[in-house]
Amino acid sequence: MAQIGDSKKLFEHELGMALGAERKVLATLKKLERNAQREELKQQFHHHLEETEGQIENLEQAMQAVGAEGGHESESANGIAAEGEKLLERVDEELIDAVLLAAAAKTEHVEIAMYEGLITKAEAMGVDDVVALLAENLEQERHTLEEVNQASEKLSKQLATQAA
Predict the structure, then answer these.
(1) Among candidates 93, 89, 87, 103, which has minimal Cα distance to 151?
(2) What is the Cα–Cα distance from 41 to 30, expressed in whole angstroms?
(3) Any domain includes 96
(4) CATH code (residue 110)
């Protein structure tokens, strides 16, 4: 891989990694929706899947606006997915949703940090159209994290009651 020699190329590379991450998230959300035990959670994952498709479109537009090409693999997204898959093999069925929600929360935190960093760089570069696209994605990720945290809290209380 070629050396990245300036901040614009770094930004373009990071946009490509964000695109790669969202593509991995999209594939993972399909698995999460399929594996979720509770219908409410299946619906939540499906909704975020639809949002993620829009986020991918926003990233593709952002990349086009700055002349960036392709997507790059995201090691963080791959790692969270692999960690969740390994843990799913070890838990009882009633704990599957808790594992899925934990993986979703980790992913949202990574995505929020990713978009915050990209927005900072895009603002410094003066590409306001790109900032708007990234800010839309960031807001969706923050909202999703709130929903995931609420679902996790509710499920944790249910599981604690069952264990008592």
Answers:
(1) 103
(2) 12
(3) yes
(4) 1.20.1260.10
